[in-house]
Specification:
Layout: H1 4-11, H2 18-23, E1 28-32, E2 44-48, E3 51-57, E4 63-67, E5 81-82, E6 87-88, E7 95-96, E8 102-104, H3 114-117, E9 122-123, E10 125-128, E11 131-134, E12 158-165, H4 169-176, H5 182-185, H6 187-196, E13 206-211, E14 215-222, E15 231-240, E16 244-247, E17 257-266, E18 269-277, H7 286-292, H8 319-323, H9 333-343, H10 360-377, E19 397-402
Antiparallel strand pairs: 1-11, 2-3, 3-4, 4-9, 5-6, 6-7, 7-8, 10-11, 12-18, 13-14, 14-15, 15-16, 15-19, 16-17, 17-18
The structure holds FE2/S2 (inorganic) cluster (FES) and fe (ii) ion.
Residues 70, 72-73, 75, 89, 91-94 line the site of FE2/S2 (inorganic) cluster.
Length: 425
């Protein structure tokens, strides 16, 4: 439960809202690389923290993230002509390069330096892990780029999907770190998996959480089917401030590891990026993964990546199927998640909830994010921005371990790493 003030501090990300200003200090995905695959191709319109942007790849292959509004009279540069080393506004022909410099101003020939003074806002852009990333904070504060381990894999060993959600970012994250919902909401799918390899059938795990230098991690501790008196089945999920979750890597190494990133579009919308990557060097079939997760552009998603199944059509819930064995009447993980999350309203009233012991991770996320934003307001070092933080060695895991082994030994850094003194934890 949060007060109305705390809820606003947690959820609002546009304009001067402190949370959005804090998030600008981190690298953030702007779109998929495939959306801007071709030099001089169609520019992509994207909104982050309520700011409307355009991503484009110029003739030479350089990717840029710029303000959507042409500085002349603010027409959209997403409609612009992308050719010959820049983006030209179709309204009066002003043209800008990837750095935001005005390189042609045909309506103002010989205008005494007017063209040279004209600047289009351009943010640093970088491609990694199938995505274009940008940094929207003050230039002097730009942090090291987070080199996650999946980014180092060949492109065919990971799949990336993108889905728009009509909810605030925090609500989407609360769905991702809500361990107890899977057994109910996703039960048809989960139970099929469990039939294949039942590690545990314990539906009320003990949850424990602890803060870390990147955010926090929590363990769901269950009694396993095998050796229930001497072992525990532990799943450790990680949350990296400000919007990334590492789902526990599957025990079975033929199954993919999974990371989720939730980028705030504005206060009431979020773009979800889901990454599935190999644990055994085998290729990942990206198209099949998107089909399986009902995230295929043009089939499950509209032109702006939002689900075609939404509140307007009652998420295509099939009541007849519910009478015949389906728990939700809704097909697919992400459709089920989105139906529940969107049904709560775009910003849930956190003063009206009744939280239980199964909500420990959600409570911790809110607490950690509020702490993070208050640090920002106080000018203190931000969580997870230590340049020595080894992003590629942060691990989420699930393991069956002896009953007396602390859960903290699961999902720790790969290899030895201890944050140096002074790094915020
Ligand atoms: S509005 Fe873009 S050139 Fe006039
Ligand atoms: Fe879910």
């Amino acid at each position: 439960m949060l007060s109305a003030e705390e809820n606003t501090l947690l959820t609002h990300v546009t304009g001067d809202a402190p949370m959005g200003q804090m998030m600008r200090r981190y690298w953030v995905p702007a779109c998929l690389s495939e959306e801007v695959a071709t030099p001089d191709g169609t520019p992509v319109r994207t909104t982050i923290f309520g700011e409307r942007l355009v991503v484009f790849r110029d003739t030479g292959g350089t990717v840029a993230v710029v303000d959507e509004r042409c500085p002349h009279r603010l027409a959209s540069l997403a409609l612009g002509r992308n050719e010959e080393g820049g983006l030209r506004c179709i309204y009066h022909g002003w043209k800008f390069n990837t750095a935001g410099a005005c390189i042609d101003m045909p309506t103002e020939p010989g205008a005494f330096g007017f063209r040279d003074r004209m600047k289009l806002q351009s943010y640093p852009a970088r491609e990694a892990g199938g995505m274009v990333w940008t940094y929207m904070g003050p230039a002097a504060e730009i942090p090291a780029f987070p080199e996650y381990d999946w980014m180092k894999l060949p492109r065919d060993q990971y799949a990336v999907m993108k889905v728009g959600e009509r909810v605030n970012y925090a609500q989407a994250i609360e769905g991702a770190i809500d361990s107890s919902h899977s057994w109910f909401l996703h039960q048809g799918i989960i139970w099929d998996w469990q039939k294949r390899a039942a590690t545990s059938v314990d539906t009320s795990p003990r949850l424990e959480a602890e803060d870390t230098d990147y955010g926090f991690r929590y363990a769901a501790i269950r009694v396993p089917v095998q050796n229930p008196d001497t072992e525990r089945y532990i799943r450790v999920t990680l949350f990296l401030v400000p919007f990334t979750a590492f789902i526990p890597r599957p025990l079975d190494k033929t199954t993919y590891a999974h990371i989720q990133i939730f980028v705030p579009v504005d206060n009431e919308r979020t773009i979800f990026y889901g990454i599935f990557f190999t644990q055994n060097d085998n290729p990942v079939d990206e198209e099949a993964m998107r089909r399986e997760h009902h995230c295929v552009p043009g089939v499950d998603l509209d032109r702006n990546w939002y689900k075609l199944a939404n509140e307007d059509n009652w998420f295509n819930q099939d009541r007849a199927a519910m009478k015949n064995g389906s728990w939700t009447g809704i097909n697919g993980f992400s459709n089920q998640d989105m139906a529940c999350q969107e049904s709560m309203g775009p910003i849930v009233d956190r003063a009206a909830e009744q939280l239980g012991t199964s909500d420990i991770a959600i409570i911790r996320m809110r607490k950690r994010m509020l702490e993070a934003v208050r640090r920002f307001q106080d000018g203190e070092p931000l969580i997870g921005l230590d340049p020595d933080l080894p992003h590629d060695r942060i691990r989420s895991e699930q393991l069956v371990v002896p009953i007396d082994q602390p859960w903290q030994s699961v999902g720790a850094y790969a290899g030895e790493y201890k944050p140096k003194a002074g790094v915020p934890v």
